Amino acid sequence: MTLFEKIRCLLTFGQGVALPLPELTAETVPTELFKQWFDDANKSGILLPEAMSVSSVSSCGQPSARMVLLKEYNEEGFVFYTNYGSRKSQELSENTKVALLFHWNVLQRQVRIEGTVEKVSPEQSAKYFHSRDIGSQIGAWASHQSKALSHDNQLKEQFEHYQALFKDKEVPLPEFWGGWRVKPHYVEFWQGRASRLHDRLCFEKQGGNWQHAKLQP
Ligand SMILES: Cc1cc2nc3c(=O)[nH]c(=O)nc-3n(C[C@H](O)[C@H](O)[C@H](O)COP(=O)(O)O)c2cc1C
């Protein structure tokens, strides 16, 4: 964050921008509004505006949530990358229902997304994987995400093993690593307002088309 962004972040903390929600037409799709809000969050100086919570549900109905980073979004969905052997990936493979949550506190905004997941293509995962720094690429090989460590040095040893193995070579995309695309069927925008008279605007996909409605806060 630049100094200017930090000062703006401090000065506006808790105030929010409280801009009115845009005028909507029957053709408005949630991705348009998400883009405006995501751009605002990027400009606001918030640290990691792309951080979002992703919730999965186990086969016995236990929900669990963790933060990940949004890497791409478009009308198809919202993409994040992870280890396909991790707890979240195992749960998402068994139950594709998923929820995402963004909270941009300085802007007093929240976006809730519900949908289903699918894996992105290995080509798309490889493209993103190779855009990461070498340390992160080797780190993806070294970590059996969500599995127990057998001893304290295990991660360092595994990292050094792969560092030596891929020395002076392109690090290949691990088969156990890639992206999940969340295809939304519900997107809700929340804008904080005075006296708790917050705006809530929800979009729901019905018969392939987005319908929108305003909800009481
Ligand atoms: C701000 C933030 C961003 C994160 N981004 C990612 C990410 O993009 N992918 C990922 O696999 N883990 C990410 N993590 C770590 C996850 O929260 C989590 O610890 C990890 O994915 C293992 O989760 P699981 O055992 O439920 O699968 C991030 C954590 C934080 C706090």
Automatic annotation (TrEMBL):
Keyword flag Oxidoreductase: yes
GO biological process per UniProt: pyridoxine biosynthetic process
Cofactor note text: Binds 1 FMN per subunit.
Record-given protein name: Pyridoxine/pyridoxamine 5'-phosphate oxidase
The Pyridoxamine 5'-phosphate oxidase N-terminal domain, residue ranges: 39-160
Catalytic activity reported: pyridoxine 5'-phosphate + O2 = pyridoxal 5'-phosphate + H2O2; pyridoxamine 5'-phosphate + O2 + H2O = pyridoxal 5'-phosphate + H2O2 + NH4(+)
Species in which this protein is naturally found: Thalassotalea piscium
Residues that hold substrate according to the record: 71, 128, 132, 136, 196-198
PROSITE patterns: PYRIDOX_OXIDASE (PS01064)
Oligomer status and interactors: Homodimer.
SUPFAM superfamilies the record matches: FMN-binding split barrel
Family (UniProt): Belongs to the pyridoxamine 5'-phosphate oxidase family.
Cofactor(s) recorded in Swiss-Prot or TrEMBL: FMN
Domain Pyridoxine 5'-phosphate oxidase dimerisation C-terminal: 177-217
